[in-house]
């Protein structure tokens, strides 16, 4: 009877899993696949640079290289592998100055039409606008190429671009397109290849003694950085990236960097990863510090570093991981900091872990879908999460580990609170629970998302939820239709390895009906109450220690009949498959209406013909006084139950009978015409039926036994026009008294019997017995 409810304290487990889901949804934001590993991101980020200064060592590879601009050819000869040094100052999208100095001389040949010149270059000095300044080269006096005219075209090839998308992505010169490597000095045959084989940015000391980072870049306010899956970041003021070390080997397609600081202010943004979308509103901030990055041809790795950020009010998190259902979290305030970041990404998979972290979040509202039929709508929610591994801490433990398939989290939640404003969840054998309102508060909770039994442990100080429209199954055959319910628990302890909390939870509900599989339906009037207190000790099963059901119900019977009953179930207890309670049923109003069968027949004898009609009559036995059943013991064992038999219960019914015709039997003569038309009339009367009954009930079925019933007065019936002499008597003899069912036969006896008083007494007994048989055979046993 009650086992499923006791075990369905899963309501509390569901809410705790909701808290874990909420935390993991927020942490997913920190685990987005790093977009800077994508070339489209790099291109858009480079295009957003407004100012930069840096110094780098560029490794050059021996050989001849050719570039073409219009009708002009430009051939560079690097006589041996060497190192060069590049320094530049780029501000407000203007190149103010740059210096490119070579370890040894390189040679460049310019050919315009039929004229050419070969020059040696030790350094290239640039001023504003990226133009070459004087003192950059010497004309070699010997050889076939020593004409001066082509020198006027030198800036066409070597002027530096002010477009950051070109300057910072390897296409630094305005007019030079793709450079090809020559297989010989005359460059008659070309192949892919560029002269720069390696780039190493390094820190230095400025002229004024100020330390200079290897590379510093500031981003232009209002620019946009493109991210995968139609994502983007709209850059706000004071956004920059500073590298202390940055190296890249172009031949090996590998490199490393030490990102000292990446600080960006965002006015808008969309970040997508898997099924999670972050829509950023102003003013949001993101900062990364001391991030060690390594890249090769197959992977992109982050070895260490910290990440912190703030999300502006109005930022939302959208998750679509459960079929077509969309979960949304609308953020009022969020701040996070993570250290010890470790990321590894390849084309096939990626993973990220965090050594320490803090997440503080205030949600304005939100909706979380856990499956197609399970969701929670949130009001104001506060979360303070400190990431950390449980004691004792394993040496290889990472409190946050994310891969393409899952996210695992260890940590402690402090000062958790949330307001629930709606939702629904479906639980096996309970049905769909509609969540109306609620509040959950906890001082300290431990999170372990890898624990499938108890992912959240600790004390929940306050747990209050209000439900509506719930079907609560007591067992497979009995369901209570709850119009609303409140569940309250305080200081509930969630312990490791235990699915349900330690403590006491109280349920107060209003029920609109109970339906049993063997009996039909019980319709409660408004205000029927269900009260249960469920308690659980450490390491034990949940136990219903006290409960009650009180209300008035309209119990359906066969043929649309009913009994209005007061139901009282007190002292409900249930533990580990066994339970008991005290049951009392008081029938305060009820009636059973049935119609006796009608019949028609004809008989002929010696030319005389009798047409006999037995009319149907409507009888409605009705309670004359309350019928009290109980109290009696109700006992449950797993899926079965029974009540102690109720015996010798007195009852009293009234049986209203309207004045009406019961029998009509006209007799025709052999030559036609009606000889006589005898009939039996019932007079208007209201006798009582009294008696006793026994009630037996169990999960296997129920039975009501009625006995010692008596009629308070005889049924008053009168025979009219019985003077048909011997012919009528002959007809009565032929038709017999069994015609037309028990009541019809008794009615004919009033017409035909010589002892009219005895016939009336028989008719009274027949109507009484037939009424009690109908009532006792009705299926109105209570199956709950």
Q: Keywords for this structure?
A:
36-stranded antiparallel sheet, 784 residues, mainly beta
Fold and architecture overview:
By secondary structure, the chain is mainly β. It is built from 8 helices and 51 strands. The chain has a 36-stranded antiparallel beta sheet that branches. β49 (688-698) and β50 form a beta hairpin. It is elongated and about 160 Å long. It starts with a helix and ends in a 7-residue tail after the last helix. Residues 1-12, 29-38 and 779-784 have low confidence and may be disordered.
The helix content, as a percent range, equals 10-25%
Radius of gyration: 48 Å
- Distance from first to last alpha carbon: 7 Å
Q: With helices defined by DSSP (H or I, 4 residues minimum), what is the helix count?
A: 8
């Amino acid at each position: 009877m009650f086992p499923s409810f006791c075990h369905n304290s899963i309501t509390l487990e569901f809410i705790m899993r909701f808290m874990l889901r909420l935390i993991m949804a927020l942490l997913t934001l920190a685990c987005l696949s790093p977009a800077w590993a994508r070339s489209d991101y790099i291109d858009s980020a480079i295009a957003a640079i407004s100012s930069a200064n840096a110094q780098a060592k560029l490794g050059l590879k021996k050989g001849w290289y050719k570039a073409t601009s219009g009708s002009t050819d430009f051939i560079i000869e690097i006589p041996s592998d060497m190192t060069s040094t590049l320094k530049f100052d780029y501000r407000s999208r203007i190149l103010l100055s740059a210096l490119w100095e070579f370890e040894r001389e390189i040679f460049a040949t310019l050919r315009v039409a039929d004229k050419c010149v070969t020059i040696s270059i030790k350094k290239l000095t640039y001023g504003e606008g990226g133009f070459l300044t004087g003192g950059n080269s010497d004309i070699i006096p010997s050889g076939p190429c020593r004409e001066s005219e082509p020198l006027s075209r030198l800036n066409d090839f070597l002027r530096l671009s002010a477009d950051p998308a070109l300057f910072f992505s390897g296409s630094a010169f305005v007019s030079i397109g793709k450079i090809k490597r020559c297989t010989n000095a005359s460059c008659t045959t070309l192949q892919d290849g560029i002269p720069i084989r390696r780039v190493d940015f390094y820190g230095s000391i400025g002229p004024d003694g100020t330390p200079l980072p290897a590379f510093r870049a500031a981003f232009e306010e209002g620019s946009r950085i493109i991210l995968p899956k139609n994502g983007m970041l709209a850059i706000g003021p004071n956004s920059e990236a500073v590298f202390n070390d940055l190296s890249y080997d172009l031949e090996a397609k590998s490199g490393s960097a030490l990102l000292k600081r990446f600080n960006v202010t965002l006015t808008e943004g969309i970040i997508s990863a898997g099924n999670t979308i972050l829509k950023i509103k102003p003013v949001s901030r993101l900062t990364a510090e001391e991030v060690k990055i390594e890249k090769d041809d197959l992977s992109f790795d982050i070895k260490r570093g910290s990440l912190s950020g703030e999300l502006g009010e109005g930022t939302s998190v959208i998750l679509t991981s459960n079929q077509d259902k969309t979960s949304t979290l609308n953020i009022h305030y969020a701040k996070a900091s993570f250290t010890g970041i470790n990321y590894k990404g390849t084309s096939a998979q990626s993973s990220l872990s965090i050594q320490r972290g803090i997440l503080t979040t205030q949600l304005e509202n939100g909706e979380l879908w856990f499956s197609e039929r399970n969701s929670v709508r949130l009001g104001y929610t506060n979360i303070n999460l400190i990431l950390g591994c449980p004691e004792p801490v394993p040496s290889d433990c990472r409190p946050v580990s994310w891969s393409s398939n899952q996210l695992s989290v260890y940590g402690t939640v402090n000062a958790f609170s949330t307001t629930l404003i709606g939702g629904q969840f479906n639980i096996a054998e309970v049905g769909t629970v509609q969540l109306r309102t609620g509040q959950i508060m906890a001082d300290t909770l431990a999170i372990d998302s890898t624990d499938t039994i108890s992912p959240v442990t600790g004390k929940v100080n306050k747990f209050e939820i209000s439900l509506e429209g719930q079907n609560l199954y007591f067992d497979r055959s009995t369901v209570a239709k709850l119009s609303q319910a409140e569940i309250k628990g305080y200081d509930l302890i969630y312990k490791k390895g235990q699915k349900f909390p330690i403590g006491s939870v109280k349920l107060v509900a209003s029920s609109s009906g109970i339906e049993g599989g063997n009996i039909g339906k019980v319709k409660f009037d408004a205000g029927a109450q269900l009260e249960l207190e469920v308690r659980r000790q450490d390491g034990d099963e949940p136990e219903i220690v006290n409960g009650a059901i009180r209300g008035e119900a309209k119990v359906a019977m066969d043929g649309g009949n009913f009994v209005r009953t007061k139901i009282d179930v007190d002292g409900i207890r249930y533990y580990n498959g066994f339970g008991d309670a005290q049951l009392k049923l008081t029938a305060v109003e009820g009636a059973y209406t049935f119609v006796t069968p009608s019949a028609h027949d004809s008989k002929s004898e010696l030319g005389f013909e009798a047409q006999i009609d037995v009319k149907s009559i409507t009888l409605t036995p009705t309670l004359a006084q309350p019928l009290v059943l109980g109290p009696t013991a109700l006992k449950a064992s797993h899926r079965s139950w029974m009540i102690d038999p109720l015996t010798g219960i007195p009852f009293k019914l009234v049986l209203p009978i309207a004045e009406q015709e019961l029998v009509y039997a006209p007799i025709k003569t052999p030559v036609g015409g009606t000889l006589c038309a005898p009939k039996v009339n019932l007079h208007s009367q209201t006798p009582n039926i009294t008696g006793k009954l026994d009630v037996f009930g169990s999960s296997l079925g129920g039975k009501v036994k009625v006995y010692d019933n008596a009629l308070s007065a005889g049924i008053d019936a009168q025979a009219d026009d019985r003077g048909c002499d011997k012919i009528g008597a002959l007809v009565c003899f032929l038709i017999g008294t069994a015609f037309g069912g028990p009541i019809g036969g008794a009615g004919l006896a009033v017409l035909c019997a010589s002892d009219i008083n005895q016939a009336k007494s028989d008719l009274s007994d027949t109507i009484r017995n037939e009424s009690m048989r109908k009532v006792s055979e009705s299926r109105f046993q209570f199956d709950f």
